[in-house]
Amino acid sequence: MTIGVLKEPAHDTRVSLLPEHIILLKKLGVDILVETNAGNMAFANDDKYIEAGADILSREKVLQQSDLIVAINILDASAINQLSSKIILGLYQPLFTADVMQNWSTKQCTVFSIDMLPRTTRAQSMDVLSSQANIAGYKAVLLAANLFPRYFPMFMTAAGSIPPAKVLILGAGVAGLQAIATAKRLGAVVEVFDTRPAVKEEVMSLGGKFVEVEGAADASQAGGYAVEQSEDFTTSKS
């Protein structure tokens, strides 16, 4: 088995496999081909991949010589034209990119879009959505703190006290819980709204105040996802 690691588009700083992952795969007898400069934006240069046992090749050669291609984003048109009977693994949102999936099927490619994996205990190690949501919740608060014209924590100075920022977080899922924890660490007063009453305990354990809104539909039975609220509820609260 030969796995090919492609460089992501310029807007994405991630890479599918880091050098430490290469070491583990090499022990399993897997050959790894990495596109030149694929890991530069993730602080993993070509030398680190070579030390781990990977071969650095051009994009064309990686596409040609790999049995399984890992790429987080959908491949560009030139890369897709070079595919034939390959296995492709990444985050492709097939429900929104049906035309691309149809194109790959005509080339007899097998595609694994791991963002479609169910959020179950058995698939936890492959749950890419939760890991990325965790980062999103953390970064969202840092960006908000940077844009906020004052300070998040309470400051006591000789000239007087500056009250802490008040933060409202909508939703206490994976991203929301991380946002609560980050905002509290920065010293903000945090309030949280979620349509699932069951998350109140988690919110409070992180130091947030749970905002209960009368008439909200309980989404706790929706498999961990939100449900559409009634028209009466949205009208009365708007």
Number of domains: 2
| SS strand fraction | 15-25%
Helical residues, percent: 25-40%
CATH topology of the largest domain: Rossmann fold
Largest sheet: spatial strand order: 3-2-1-4-5-6
Largest sheet, in brief, is: 6 strands, parallel
| Oligomeric form | single chain
What does the average pLDDT come to?
A: 90
Distance between the termini: 57 Å
In CATH terms, the superfamily of the largest domain is: NAD(P)-binding Rossmann-like Domain
- The radius of gyration is 23 Å
Looking at the overall shape, the CATH architecture of the largest domain is 3-Layer(aba) Sandwich
| CATH class descriptor of the largest domain | Alpha Beta
Along the chain, the helix and strand elements come as: EHEHEHEHEHEHEEEHEHEH
Structure explained in plain terms:
This protein is of the alpha/beta class and 238 residues long. It has 2 domains: 2-116, Rossmann fold, CATH 3.40.50; 124-237, NAD(P)-binding Rossmann-like Domain (Rossmann fold), CATH 3.40.50. Helix content is 34%, strand content 18%. The chain has helices spanning 19-27, 46-52, 59-65, 77-80, 98-106, 128-147, 174-185, 200-205, 231-237, and strands spanning 2-5, 31-35, 55-57, 68-70, 87-90, 110-113, 155-157, 160-162, 166-170, 189-193, 209-211. It has a 6-stranded parallel beta sheet, sandwiched between helices. Strands 9-10-11 form a 3-stranded parallel beta sheet. α6 (128-147) packs parallel to α7 (174-185). The radius of gyration is 23 Å and the shape is globular. The termini are far apart. The model has no long low-confidence stretch (mean pLDDT 90).
